[in-house]
Amino acid sequence: MVDTHNPDGTKESFSSVVSGTVTKLHIHEWDILSEGSIILEYEECLHPITFKSLCCDCGADLNKLKDTMEMIASRTTVIDTLSDESLLSSLSTVTRAATTISMEHAVPELKITAEMAEKYSIEERDRLLRERKLDLLVDLDQTLLHTTNSSHYYPYSPDVIAYQLNAQSSQTFYTKLRPGVKEFLTNLLPYYQFHIVTFGERLYAHTMAKLIDPNKRFFYHRILSRNECFDPTRKTANLSALFPCGDSMVCIIDDREDVWNYARNLVHVKPYVWFKDVGDINDINLPSPAIPSEQLIPPISEKEFEEQLENSEHLADERMEMDSKALIERTTEDGYQHAISRGEKRKLDTDINTNEHTNQEEANKKLKEQSDNNDEQTNATTLPVNNESNITADSDNYLRQLEIILKRIHTEFYTSYDQWTQTKARGMPDLKQILPDIRRQVLGAVSLCFSHLMPQGYPLEKHRATILARAMGATVTGDIEIDDSGNCSTTHVVAGKRTTKVERAFKYNIHVVTPEWLIDCYEQWERKSEDVYNLHSNYDVKQSRLFTKEAPRLVSYEPNIVNEQVSLNRQKTQTSPDDEPTSSSTVSKSAKPPLKRPRTPEIPPTATDTVDDVVDEDNQSATKQFNFTMSVDELSDMEKEVNDFCNDDEDDDDDTETLSRPTKQQRTTAFTPTTTTDNPNDDDNYDSDSSSSQKLRDLILGKKPETDSDEESLSDDDAPRGWKEGQKARKKLL
Amino acid sequence: MFFHVSLDHEILLHPRYFGPQLIKTVRRMLFNEVEGKCIGRYGYVIAVTSIDNIGVGRIQPGRGYVIFPVKYHAIVFRPFKHEVVEAIITQVTRMGIFCKIGPLTCFISRHDLMIQPEDSIRVKIAGLQVDAKEFFAVGTLMDDYLVS
């Protein structure tokens, strides 16, 4: 504010339109000013921290400030008062660093400048280094716990915690913590600083954190939920904001690799499944809106895959007939026993080798043995097919194994860090480097080849088994490798069935193991004892975890998610009114077996193309892509189920229609024309869970009248076949 | 700052409440809908002190719902810029501290204090922003007699 005395003796005051602190005053009382003279110098607030749009240092509302600035700028040409001009001249010179980075997990509104963010994160990094800790980003769902929203959950366990998220909705959630969570976190607390990074809602994430960590010892306020995620499908987007200095000290544990873009500092955790009917209720793919169609690979049906496998088998069989001796060995139980005993002998040899190779393993030996013992139990809980009875004891002890892995990562990091501080030769050690290195030691001395795992002509590089094996440092070859002197360099054959390759492996005294061995090695970061995984004659490769899909999923009834979905469905039905509303609403709502999604990146085997062509095309994307599509069988299966349910008395004409008409689901999720031609009646693969899915569908259809949304968007004329009957059936249920 | 003001509110009532308890329901709903909420320029309604008048309910054509205009007196909390208030600390971060002034969330940037959640401090409100349904404040400790 400047007071002036006009020549006529009156006083007039000018008030400054900008805010700031005066640093130097150029004029004194009773000075006479001429045009253009400098009055004062001032320092404007740089607004390094903003909360919403308020500057936290000066309290100015930046939105309003911006408006006034623009106003002044437009006014300059008109007004040429002394004070205003001098002030304005300095105005334009101030360049302000925009506050862009929100470093606080739970408060995305709080933003700071990049400079400050860097300063803070350097401080943070130095603190961690001083305390010899690392950052650990922890996922919640299916990593530390398992949550369902179905009150008919099974199996029962006294540890299941029931709670409601908010008072308004009566929706009850049930959560089972993974056994040993608290011990896991307590034991790792001296080594890691935990952050929760989850796709659950904020309220859910904080409730879960309170559940695991009531005293805020582990996570404090470091909880990042869906509300704060920049990208709805990837968690990677937030990394640069949380760690502006780089993520060289960040380790991640998650049961999903895709949300982290297959980051190299990710420890892929064995998914924790307790409630058999649900997967991850906060799964990003449940509403499945955001996947661009280019990402989708034409799906390969399970049947096709089977056929291909059979073909390769036939070839193998033909070859086998020439080798009659092997045939005998294959068919007789004696030969098999023989093979097992040989495999054991071999195992003893390699055991000595591994002990020499890895000192680390020796240190962990005791714990390893413990977990080895429990291994079979663990398999029983994760494979729903195997346990029909109600097992209420939770034998999942993966967290103990994970603890060992993480401690080892920590040791490795600080060993190389100590080396680095002495030499300072290269850059600081990076977990993105160290982690894969450690993993590569797991099967370092192993040379693998596969049998009956992939169809003929399938590019070896792309198969999940190959990717897993290579990540663990194993050498993968197409066939059993025999050098000139007749020695066999291949050490393991991972087989799904007893083929000629397997017989040859027995001849060379090589381990023949099931794909489960590979997966368990991958999940537990150690070379598992092979004899537990010897290939049995009644082993069914179709049920291998290498191929089996995740547990069926149930849509979350959290209000916001449902709204999203309802609107989505509405959109779908509006844009394509001739589609079957039942399939859009009931299927995506009840959503169980149809939404099962293969975890493996199944790229269609191209029988006509040469292998090289395919490799060139998809080389980069092959390891980085998931197949989000459903197979034809799944589609036809769910189509059939829906139809069966809707028209009890209209069966005759519908079956033909089913064959000729592509369904809604096929159009919306598959995006490729390849799915329309197959036989819909092949649902053999779902025998095991069809009863439970039927139950669930009844439950949901009976209880949730949300199909109304579809009713609204459709006029009566447009209601497709079976719709009215479906309603009748629904009323009956109600 | 606290004020005792006269306010209006409209209660939308479902037909199932029509009956002898009607007015009682309207009163109950007023308390539910208004107390603890933030009304644009008046700030947070702390408590309804008296219900002065419940107007004639009008049935909404085609819906069956009824709207009752209600006049009431309430104590409201309206924060002002430069106001000095007592606050309870909720969260301490690297960038500053978060505190609660009753229903109002306030952030205080960079500080050199020994402080922990649940402590109470005296803050001057440096900036205020009205969001759709909430106030947000930025506080400062740089003044006489502040902090504690």
From TrEMBL, chain A:
It catalyses: O-phospho-L-threonyl-[protein] + H2O = L-threonyl-[protein] + phosphate; O-phospho-L-seryl-[protein] + H2O = L-seryl-[protein] + phosphate. Keywords: Hydrolase, Nucleus. It holds the Pfam family BRCT. It comes from the Eukaryota. It is an enzyme of class 3 (hydrolase). Residues 332-391, 565-613, 640-734 are annotated as: Disordered. Its EC number is 3.1.3.16. Residues 129-294 form the FCP1 homology domain. It is found in: Nucleus. GO terms for molecular function: RNA polymerase II CTD heptapeptide repeat phosphatase activity. Gene3D superfamilies: BRCT domain (3.40.50.10190), HAD superfamily/HAD-like (3.40.50.1000), S15/NS1, RNA-binding (1.10.287.10). The keyword Hydrolase applies. Its main location: nucleus. Residues 376-391, 659-671 have a biased composition (Polar residues). Residues 646-657, 708-717 have a biased composition (Acidic residues). Residues 438-535 form the BRCT domain. Signal peptide: none annotated. Residues 332-350, 358-371, 695-707, 718-728 have a biased composition (Basic and acidic residues). One of its GO terms (cellular component) is nucleus. NCBIfam families: FCP1_euk. This promotes the activity of RNA polymerase II. This is RNA polymerase II subunit A C-terminal domain phosphatase. It comes from Rotaria magnacalcarata.
UniProtKB/TrEMBL annotation, chain B:
Transmembrane segments: none annotated. GO terms for cellular component: P-body; RNA polymerase II, core complex. Its main location: nucleus. Residues 79-131 form the S1 motif domain. It is found in: Nucleus. It holds the Pfam family SHS2_Rpb7-N. GO terms for biological process: positive regulation of nuclear-transcribed mRNA poly(A) tail shortening; positive regulation of translational initiation; transcription initiation at RNA polymerase II promoter. GO terms for molecular function: single-stranded DNA binding; single-stranded RNA binding; translation initiation factor binding. Residues 11-64 form the RNA polymerase Rpb7-like N-terminal domain. CDD domains: RNAP_II_Rpb7_N. Keywords: DNA-directed RNA polymerase, Transcription. PANTHER family: DNA-DIRECTED RNA POLYMERASE II SUBUNIT RPB7, DNA-DIRECTED RNA POLYMERASE II, III. Belongs to the eukaryotic RPB7/RPC8 RNA polymerase subunit family. This is DNA-directed RNA polymerase II subunit RPB7. It comes from Rotaria magnacalcarata. The lineage of its organism: Eukaryota, Metazoa, Spiralia, Gnathifera, Rotifera.
